[in-house]
Design goal:
about 100 residues; alpha+beta; 5-stranded mixed beta sheet; 2 helices
């Protein structure tokens, strides 16, 4: 059972300089900041690379309780992966959430 990084989230109290930094230093293509964001996270999707296996990213405002950097792993079978996590001493702290037509986190 393999896993690759599928999405990285970088959050800050002041996300605008982060978007400029990652764009200038690493060439990340920063999309528009979401204006319909009910949580006002000033969240922008970022294109790191192209292709089927490309990692996506988002840069936005850090809300209370959120870690500054989170990465999401891409797996073939989420229920089986969560069972393996539990079998190896880990635990599920948030139930799986469908976030798009084909994505569950």
């Amino acid at each position: 059972m393999g896993a690759t990084v599928g999405h990285i989230e970088v959050l800050s109290d002041d996300p605008a300089p982060l978007r400029e930094f990652y764009s200038a230093v690493f060439g990340w293509k920063v999309g528009p900041v979401a204006t319909d964001d009910p949580e006002q996270m000033e969240y922008a999707m970022v294109q790191i690379a192209e292709g089927d296996d490309a990692v996506s990213a988002g840069i936005g405002r850090r809300a209370a309780g959120f870690l500054p950097v989170t990465f999401y792993l891409r797996v073939d079978d989420l229920p089986a992966t969560l069972e393996s996590v539990a079998a190896h001493g880990g635990r599920t702290v948030t139930q799986p959430l469908k976030v798009g037509p084909v994505s569950t986190i």
